[in-house]
Amino acid sequence: MDSNCKKLWYISCFFLLSGCYFPEIELNESERQEIERSILNDASQVKPKIKIGAVIEDQARLIGVDLSRSSARPNDVVKVTYYIESLTDQAEDNEIFVHLQGRRAGMWQNLDHTPVKGRLPLRKLKRGQVVKDVQQFRVKSGYPPGGAKLYWGLYRGKKRLKLSNPEQVKHDKKNRVIVANFVILPPRPPVEIVAYQAQDQELITVDGQLNEASWANAKWTRYWGDPSGRTFKTKR
Questions:
Q1: Which pairing describes strands 177-184 and 71-72: parallel, antiparallel, or unpaired?
Q2: H or E stretch covering 134
Q3: Interior/surface letters 14-27, b for 16+ CB within 10 angstroms, e for the rest
Q4: How far apart are the C-alpha atoms of 97 and 56, rounded to whole Å?
Q5: Per-residue pLDDT band at 212 (split at 50, 70, 90)
Q6: What is residue 10's predicted lDDT score, i.e. its pLDDT?
Q7: What pLDDT is recorded for position 154?
Q8: What pTM, to 2 d.p., does this model score?
Q9: CB-based contact 73:186 (threshold 8 Å)
Q10: For the chain, how big is the Rg over CA atoms in Å?
Q11: Torsional sign, CA 167, 172, 178, 181
Q12: Beta bridge mates, 124
């Protein structure tokens, strides 16, 4: 084992033994400013559109969320902003889990993440500070249509942290807070574009210039298609 491998091995052992999942990383000035803008020091001024108030043990409180949309199709982008308040000055190395899940097979998407593009572990927050955790995700291709829920919670290692006020918030009895209800719509039908067909006596010069009116009226079509817009089926 060379010296570099030994160094990485010792670092890994240190984080495992200390229970620290997020090693310290160097941030540039732009990244530090982004983190500063994401931390709010007065929880009373936070006014999310969807109020939740879920308390996770003695560690954190999900004040609420802002949601860009409540319905989406596969490949659509959804923006969720979580407002998370720290309840302690000595937070554990907790991680955020987010699940987009419905009842049908295949209606599952893992959206676990760390706030501020992975740069702000929750342990960095002091008591009373709130992180404005903005997450943008794309609904996975092939996600079946139907109702789905967005679940949120914290975990440490392989264990989910407990919801301390289950009688006051919506949850699934498995320490997952129900953040929002979603409707996944069917995928958009593919757009078929019919190729432009030149008229009789219409001149087209194949010179690479594309400056005739005929070229201006033409539209892109799929490769290997005939003038009607149909795609050729090739045998393999």
A1: parallel
A2: strand 130-138
A3: eeeeeeebbeeeee
A4: 13
A5: confident
A6: 46
A7: 98
A8: 0.74
A9: yes
A10: 26
A11: negative
A12: none
Sign of CA dihedral 16, 17, 22, 26: negative
Structural domains in the chain, sorted by start: 32-184 (2.60.40.10), 190-236 (no CATH)
Higher pLDDT, 66 or 230: 66
Beta bridge partners of 82: 65, 133
- The two three-digit tokens of residue 112, written as one number: 């676990």
29-43, 85-99, 219-233: the lowest-pLDDT one: 219-233
Give CA–CA dist 155/94, Å, rounded: 6
Q: Which two tokens stand for residue 191?
A: 């757009």
pLDDT at 189 over 90: no
CA 98 to CA 154: how far, in whole Å?
Answer: 9
Instruction: Give the CB-side neighbour count of residue 40, counting CA atoms within 13 A.
Output: 15
Q: Is the pLDDT of residue 195 over 80?
A: no
**AA letter at 124:** K
- Which among 147, 158, 152 is positioned nearest to 171, based on CA atoms? 152
